[in-house]
């Protein structure tokens, strides 16, 4: 082979290698999570937590129904920076990890939560029955962890918790590097009595409404199916009582 041709082929091969993401081999495919909401469960009216306000409290349960873990990391140069940009770690079929920047951040929960929240991991809103615009919304940030088993028969589901509470400094306010996640087949639950687990409905008239719960409402993360992320319930609200009339979606 002509020496010049051989050198050109070597340069092209080297360039192709450089363009590949670090730790990502040719032919590897992503092993993706699939974030979903459980069926709407507990709802209640709270008129005592904030004097003069009427709150609709609800439980959220987010699960990973995919074949790969949902895992995020975040870092900041110093504690002077309040928000941490979030990177999603996407596992590959060859065992490597593809670090993928996202459009969201971590923010310190505070107010009794005392851990870092992933902004836009979950969300909720209230709408009129029969259609119409959003009447009220809820907080969007949640701490991701293996709170409890959901379906450990799924492929790649670990039989023990991996992302435990306070995993990788996620409960340290002064942390510069944080990691969180939800394993395949595991569930993270936020009970209706937790701080900020409510929608303010003080100015809403009695009637029928639809409570919508979302996993990854802004599609900030890469997952197997971004179109199965909602669960809803039709509610009847009358004074200090609320009844669930029907439930849609969820797992």
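^ Assign residues to that structure.
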């Amino acid at each position: 082979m002509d020496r010049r041709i051989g050198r050109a082929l070597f340069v092209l091969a080297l360039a192709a290698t450089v363009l590949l993401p670090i730790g990502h081999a040719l032919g590897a495919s992503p092993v993706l999570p699939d974030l979903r909401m459980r069926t709407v469960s507990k709802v209640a009216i709270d008129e005592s937590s904030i004097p003069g306000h009427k709150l609709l409290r609800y439980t959220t349960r987010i699960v990973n129904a995919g074949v790969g873990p949902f895992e995020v990391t975040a870092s900041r140069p110093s504690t002077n920076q309040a928000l941490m940009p979030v990177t999603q770690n996407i596992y590959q079929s060859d065992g490597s990890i593809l670090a993928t920047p996202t459009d969201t951040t971590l923010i310190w929960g505070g107010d009794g939560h005392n851990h870092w929240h992933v902004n836009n991991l979950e969300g909720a809103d209230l709408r009129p029955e029969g259609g119409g615009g959003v009447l009220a919304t809820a907080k969007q940030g949640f701490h991701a962890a293996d709170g409890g088993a959901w379906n450990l028969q799924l492929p790649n589901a670990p039989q023990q918790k991996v992302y435990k509470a306070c995993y990788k400094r996620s409960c340290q306010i002064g942390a510069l590097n944080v990691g969180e996640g939800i394993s395949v087949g595991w569930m993270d639950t936020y009970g209706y009595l937790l701080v900020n687990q409510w929608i303010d409905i003080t100015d809403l008239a009695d009637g029928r409404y639809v409570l919508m719960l979302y996993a990854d409402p802004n599609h900030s993360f890469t997952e197997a199916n971004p179109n199965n992320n909602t669960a809803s319930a039709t509610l009847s609200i009358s004074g200090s009582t609320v009844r669930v009339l029907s439930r849609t979606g969820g797992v």
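The two ends are 62 Å apart (CA to CA).
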